[in-house]
Amino acid sequence: MAVVGIGLTYTLTSTLLYHVLADSTCMPSECLNCSLSNAGNCLLCSKNNTNVCDAPKSCSKDFSVRVNATSFTVDEGTQLSVTCVQDLPQNLSITFEWSKNNQLINGQNGSILVMKMKEKLTISCTVRSPCGNFSSSPQDVTVNDQAGIILLICGVSAVVIIIMLAVIMKVLIKRNEVQREARKRQRQVHMQDISSTATTVTRYW
To answer: CA 94 → CA 32, 131, 133, distances in Å?
Structure first.
């Protein structure tokens, strides 16, 4: 009976220990904030452990994650390349997640996101690592409406064409008036010549 009791106790202890360790949060020691200003607040920094479990918040580093691009104002139909910039330890295995308008983008797990822009939206990235999950602040992306620009160009072009036609019509009308005045003077001169000739013939007779 003693052997059975010891075996049962060992089984229960192992099971309990397994669940405790499974529920604990473990991370590499690189995730600890052991800077000179914080080493005194984190007792785990004095231990040479490769991995630590259930580290208090005061011991964990607050890693930075942000999105970066050449410009967050683009034209409609162009491609936008956004990079998820982070300062986690380089030897850690990390994955990336991208969200558009607070909705997860499936199939995008790299540090660079390339999208064809059609409308204004908000982009953010999340880094999942053994140190924890860290997300960037949402970044607004503004898209210039090319349709509006095209309409503006067409409107300006139409106004320019109308002005040019008006100027051409005015020039043509002015030229016609000048030609009419010239023909009118020619007729007057011709009539005067005829009148002078008739007067001369009458006197001759």
So the answer is: 17, 9, 9
Please identify which residue in the block is written with the tokens 């529920």.
23
Strand intervals (E) in the chain: 26-28, 51-53, 65-68, 73-75, 79-86, 95-100, 103-104, 112-116, 121-129, 132-135, 139-144
pLDDT digits (tens, 9 = 90+) for 91-143: 899 999 999 999 999 999 999 999 999 999 999 999 999 999 999 999 999 99
Instruction: Give the contacts of 108 (CB within 8 A, at least 6 positions apart).
Output: 96, 97, 98
- Compute the half-sphere exposure of residue 112: CA atoms within 13 Å on the CB side of its CA: 6
Instruction: Read off the tokens for 170.
Output: 């005015």
Query: How wide is the angle at C-alpha 56 spanned by C-alphas 13 and 35, nearest 5°?
Result: 130
Cβ contact 171:178 at 8 Å: no
Distances (CA, A) of 112 to 16, 68, 74, 98: 43, 10, 17, 9
Q: Exposure of 125 by Cβ count < 10 A (0-12 exposed, 13-18 middle, 19+ buried)? A: buried
Q: For 192, phi and psi rounded to 5 degrees?
A: -65, -40
pTM of the model: 0.57
